Amino acid sequence: MDVLDEKTLSELAARVRAYPYPREMVVDVLRAIQERRGWVSDEGVELAAQLLRISPLEVEEVATFYDKIYRRPVGRKVIHLCDSVCCFSRGGEDILKHLEKRLQITLGQTTPDGMFTLLPTCCLGACGQAPAMSVNLRLYGHLTPEAVDRILEEERREVSP
Amino acid sequence: MSREVPRVLFANRRPGLTASLAEFERGGGYRGLRRAVAELSPAEVRRLVADSGLRGRGGAGFPTGVKWSFFPHDAPPDKYLVANCDEMEPGTYKDGELILADPHQLVEGLIVSAYALGANRATVFIRYDYERAACALERALAEAREAGYLGEHILGSDFSLEIHVHRSAGRYILGEETALLNGLEGRRPNPRLRPPFPAQKGLFGRPTNVQNVETLACVPHIVAHGPQWFRGLARTPEGAGTKLFGLSGHLERTECFELPIGTPLREIVEEWGGGVWRGRRFKACLPGGASTPFLDARALDVPMDFTALEKAGSRLGTAGVTVFDDRTCMLRVTHNLISFFARESCGFCTPCREGLPMVRECLARLEAGRGTLDDVDWLKEQVPRINLSFCALAQGAMGPLSSLLALFGDEVLDHVGRGRCPLGEG
Amino acid sequence: MPTLTIDGRTVSVPEGKTILEAAEAAGVRVPHFCWHRALGALGACRLCAVTVLDGPQKGVRMACLTPVQEGMRVSTLDESSWNMRRSVIEWLMANHPHDCPVCDEGGECQLQDMTVAGNHAVRRQRGRKRTFHNQDLGPFIEHEMNRCIACYRCVRTYRDYCGGDDFGVLGSRDRVYFGRFRPGRLLSPFSGNLVDVCPTGTLTDKTSRFRARPWDLEEASSVCPHCALGCAVIPGGRYRELLRVRADPRPQPNDGFLCDRGRFGYGYANRADRPRQARLEGRPGTLAEAVAALRERVEGIARQHGPEAVLLLGSARATVEANALLSLWARRLGAADPVFDLAARRDGAARIFARAAPALRATLADVRQADLTLVCGADPLAEGPLLALALRQAARRGAAVRVIDPRPVPLVCEAERLPLAPTLVPEALRFLAGGNGAGLSQEVLQPLAETKRLFDAARRPVVIGSAEGLGPDGVRALLALVAGASRPDRDAKAALLLPGPSSFACARLASAVPNAQDLRRRLGGGKIRAVVALEVDPLAEAPPAVTGVIEKAELFAALDYLPTATVGRANLFLPSAGPYEQDGAFCDFAGRLRAFARVLRPGTPILHTGKGNHPPRTFSPDVPGGDAAPAWEILAEILGISGGLSGARAEIEKAFSFLQGLAGLRADARDERVLPGGEPPAPPGAPAGPEPAGLRLLLSDPFVGWEPLSAHAAVLEVLRPEDAVYLNPAELARLGLAPGARARVEAQELSEIRVARAADLPPGLAWVVRRRGSALSRLPAGEVFACRVAREEGA
Ligand SMILES: Cc1cc2nc3c(=O)[nH]c(=O)nc-3n(C[C@H](O)[C@H](O)[C@H](O)COP(=O)(O)O)c2cc1C
Ligand code: SF4
Ligand code: SF4
Ligand code: FES
Ligand code: FES
After folding, report:
1. Which of residues 354-393 of B touch A (CB under 8 A)?
2. Among C185, C189, C495, C497, which residue has the fewest nearby CB atoms (within 10 Å)?
3. Mean pLDDT to the nearest integer, A82-89
């Protein structure tokens, strides 16, 4: 299993060489790996360590800190539903119930077809459009149960038209 | 909208669009930069900013001129300027709006501020979820570079600057400026011990100035129009400038508005926010993001300015105003807020790592009607002690908690007395 | 010096100190977890809250972070700070297990102490406690994450202080986790320090897990016997079994840290095959019989064949007292001085250094505070591990570290390396002292000139060598360099790594003139009839020319506590006590006498006698296996000296003036007495011969596998290096050896098969790391020998 494709790998390696402190690229490298594989496996951590010339532990220390670096397998699309105060006060919990019902999973789980993983997130910076969620890096606001159904449909279609 | 208000940072804002370089220039963009590099020494720019009364827009409200006076602008390179666009405090979304609407505001702000500080490297630290804004910003940087505003010998001067964009991976604590520096260095983003302050030993041990996006965006306007003009924008004598207010919660219109500093809360709620939603009444609000103490209806006439809000027992913070209607259980809201802070704790210091989850559990018990009077006493004890945390994250969490106990203490006790939430289901 | 009061006590401390440090000085204890004397302040635990009653910022403050100010008034008893500390304990205990009875830390746990001190007796929290999975961290450290209070001491110790990179902090919020990327052995040679610094039972000593409650341990102040640095240790044992070794927390000499060899290498003392019974011509006997036999036979042979027929072998691991009494015995017999070190070159180097002026001899503290360190022909991690750690502390303070050595010497800090053939190292030192660098190539001279500039600019440079690496010529150059560089404003010092804890004293007890030639003559003359080996294993450490003579001696007597080859062959054996089983003294590499106290009496552990059953079912007035006695006691008996240790020490002081003060040393006070310098050693005898042509063999010592005590500790087996021969890649290719191939290495009529490996070495050099028991390892380290390396065919 290749963790990164040749091209990205050589691009990253070139940037690492250009940086006086390669370590500063750790989040970039982890994100690049995640972009390709969906998540960062142990091999991904080891590859990042090799690239950045630090120990796997030092990469892992950073990788396990950030919420949006996934160190466990996730579905093809990760739904992050905001549970912070603005969304919460405008019906965010109802949206959660709806998502759970539609996807037949609870927070932290992945649908059996491997399509969606449902995770909470703190404020997405879309408080004016509460309740809000993101699917991978795409933001959706003003959520209603109907809107959620439509979004799920579209996101699913994007992967398997 | 109801009133005429000055439009400075949002002058080029069009719904759903991002202003191009041409639009920005047409609105007077890069005039501040031209003036700075052509006519003013860095010291003169610093002077203008000091005279303008500009205060930090990132939450702490520290006077920018004073902060800049600590910066060793004469030190040899590298010296760094960092724009803080972590913006993860619930209720806060103004910096994202600004970059999406008009990214050159930030770009020019960074260049002029770097010029003033003698910084030769700048970085925009941007949160994971602002990918669209990050892309807009990168486009703007390319445009600026193309137009000679950025890169080697800016506008033919001796001043050169590069600006990088760092995309983060999601944690509120990175907004804390020393945690942010650790994050940029690829280390665990725990806050750092101070002293040394970032101005002395920041990024990679070099002098570093971390500034909020909006603060930076104000700088070119001050340079272009002068400090007196900037002070004059505010509606209070001690205030200066406009402010981006991000409205949220139980309002009819939850948008981001640029309004003069000192605009009364009532005006924001009733006019700009279109009033409390569903015809309900105002119960409380967070005036400046999740870490500011609640205000109740008695405070509606407070001018939204740093000093006035402190007098009213809260803070302007990030000026993200979250309103709660009269059917809201404030205990429940506080439980949500504390859950946020507990989850976002970096885990470094004991009060935050261990204390906040305990507070959360205590609030959950009370909310469910299983709490006791001892629990309420215990909560009260926690406030001054958790306030002794290492960084301001846990102290921020104590804002809502302390004001819950002060303003809505009876409501809390009611939960104990009735064994359930007095406001029923919602 | 600001003056302030803390709880009514007035104290003055230097500017820049914190309230916590001032309180320590005033004798007021401020509770703390994350602050650590050697690691400094962090600000994470928030336990050290005190109230500033008068001062620039009044109110509750963190004592470890708040600098003192003139006139400050501080209270630790004030209610608000007391309440804060109570809350910190409550927070930490909320998720802490309540199973202290099955926690190895119980009884010496700082969390337990603070919980009691903070009056936290009632749990106000409800709900489940947080739990974690533990990791297997290898054979030394047990991990129980549920007990962690996230004080960060372990990470700061492991990463910052010790330079490891495979242990750290993972996760965040209320699930921070201290561990490794994957389960597995901690790779730092200083991993054991985690046990000492962790204030809770999260990281404990696996080698003694569940063997004793701390209060049941017999403990005493002792000195580590595993190298010449003399780290202060506190070993503990129970039921005649040595169970653990911890560092003395006091700052000197080792700053409260140990290496894993010193900490986990104690297993030799408990071995089931440890020789505990005297043997006379193959027949078991009592120690008393054996002592009588030893005296009679040695004296008899001396009478009959002349004192030249007696060869006494002293040793670096026996106490100063035992070695001194052995010398005294030689005098009484009219025999030659004992031979304290069979490696003649190393011996010669040590004798020179042992006579250097005390002011030139660097201690570990000097190394930690150095602003430039040069490591020349020494491998600190192998020859004196804590010195490598001290180097790291110097580097962390900004000192440059330069290594001049042919080998890729491993260190735990950044270092700049200058590879140089072993024979050229002395010349390099002379060049640094202002010599012309004759014999050094241009490509070497350039970086050396740069090093010289650094050296000349440094105010506290320390130059580190090793006796075996430098040899007499090198040590002379080393001492000349630092002596020439010391000025009133400038403190240049030298450190010389020596093979064992008494080496320095042995080198001083021996005459100034190295008697290597003399020994060769004596061995060659066929006159030797009696050999006495005092806690030394010549059969494993000397080449056949020497061992052949020894083995043939009419009397081959050995005193020891290790099951060595020598003990196996000796025809008179006397069981002696191990270093933690006696009172005595060692003398560290800087020439400081350091006393230690007995931890346990010698005896077969109950683990072996009762197969773990206790109490024993059969009763006897004697301690099983308890016949062993300290070697000094055996020798005092032979010499007719009475009065126990003080009697022996008095005689020693009388006979050897440079050991004055030995009698007054107290172990628990960590007294030390610096040996004076001596007559400058005589000029060298024959200069070192020309370097052999062709492939040359260089031997050196590993961290674990050669030092005799730890080589007999089973738990350290995992740290033994591979039996390899290292060559540079071009050389490997030339010899037709692929990395990993089996190669036969031959030198000085010794030969063995090793795995060929590539390393960054000068051309023409084959490098072998010694292992006790291997044939080639009988050749001395540091010297170069002509050798042959060839592919070994077949499986
Ligand atoms: C937990 C925490 C989160 C913060 N988040 C942000 C943020 O997202 N953006 C920001 O500009 N400042 C944030 N700050 C404040 C910064 O530490 C810093 O004071 C600010 O960036 C300085 O810029 P200013 O003076 O322009 O406001 C945060 C502070 C804390 C303690
Ligand atoms: S208050 Fe402490 S645990 Fe919380 S974020 Fe700050 S340093 Fe981390
Ligand atoms: S393992 Fe021990 S030393 Fe490390 S953080 Fe936990 S309690 Fe502290
Ligand atoms: S609270 Fe949900 S996006 Fe801000
Ligand atoms: S000892 Fe001061 S905060 Fe931990």
Report:
1. none
2. C185
3. 98
With a 6 Å cutoff on the Cβ, whether A82 touches ligand 4 is yes
Q: Is the CB of A123 under 6 A from ligand 4?
A: yes
Indicate the top mutation candidate among C145, C149, C186, C193 to test ligand 3's pocket, ranked by most ligand atoms within 8 A of CB. Answer: C149
For residues C382 and C476, what is the distance between their CA atoms, to the nearest angstrom?
Answer: 23
User: C165 contacts in A (CB within 8 Å)?
Assistant: 54-55, 57-58
The CB of A84 under 6 Å from ligand 4? The reply is yes
Number of domains in chain B: 3
Does C690 fall in a domain?
A: no
Which domain, by its residues, includes C786?
696-791
CATH number of A6-65: 1.10.10
Chain A residues touching residue B256 (CB < 8 angstroms): 128
Give the confidence band of C318 by pLDDT, cuts at 50, 70, 90: very high
pLDDT of residue C522: 80
Instruction: Answer whether CATH 3.40.50.620 is correct for domain A77-159.
Output: no
How far apart are the C-alpha atoms of B317 and B220, rounded to whole Å? 22
pTM: 0.96
In-domain check, residue C486: yes
Say how many domains are in chain C: 5
Taking residues C294-302, report their average pLDDT: 97
Look at residue C446 and tell me whether its pLDDT is greater than 70.
yes
Please tell me whether residues C377 and C325 are part of one structural domain: no
Ligand 2 pocket, Cβ-based, cut-off 6 angstroms: B 173, 191, 345-349, 352-353, 389-391, 393-394
CB contact under 8 A, B340 and A66: no
Average pLDDT on C755-777 reads 94
C677 domain residue, yes or no: no
Q: What is the mean pLDDT of each run of 10 residues along chain B (426 residues)?
A: 84 96 97 97 98 97 97 96 98 98 98 98 98 98 97 96 96 98 98 97 97 98 98 96 98 98 98 97 98 98 97 97 98 98 98 98 97 97 98 98 98 97 76
Three-state DSSP string of chain B? CCCCCCCCCCCCCCCCCCCCHHHHHHCCCCHHHHHHHHHCCHHHHHHHHHHHCCECCCCCCCEHHHHHHCCCCCCCCCCEEEEEECCCCCCCCHHHHHHHHCHHHHHHHHHHHHHHHCCCEEEEEECCCCHHHHHHHHHHHHHHHHCCCCECCHHHCCCCEEEEEEECCCCHHHHCHHHHHHHHCCCCCCCCCCCCCCCCCCHHHCCEEEEEHHHHHHHHHHHHHCHHHHHHHCCCCCCCCEEEEEEEECECCCCEEEEECCCEHHHHHHHHCCCEHHHCCEEEEECCCCCCCCEEHHHCCCECCHHHHHHCCCCCCCCEEEEEECCCCHHHHHHHHHHHHHHHCCCCCHHHHHHHHHHHHHHHHHHCCCCCHHHHHHHHHHHHHHCCCCCHHHHHHHHHHHHHHHHCHHHHHHHHHHCCCCCCCC
- pLDDT of C422 reads 85
Residue C524 is predicted with a pLDDT of 80
Residues B31, B70: one domain? yes
Amino acid at C309: A
Interface test with A, best of C170, C173, C174, C176 (most A CBs within 10 A): C170
- Mean pLDDT across chain C: 94
Q: Which of A15-19, B360-364, C15-19, C315-319 has the lowest mean pLDDT?
A: A15-19
Q: Are B56 and B215 contacting, i.e. CB atoms less than 8 angstroms apart?
A: yes
Q: What is the per-residue pLDDT for C693?
A: 75
* Greater pLDDT, C52 or C423: C52
Percentage of chain C lying above the pLDDT 70 cut: 97
pLDDT of residue C614: 67
Q: Is the distance from the beta carbon of residue B90 to the nearest atom of ligand 4 less than 6 Å?
A: yes
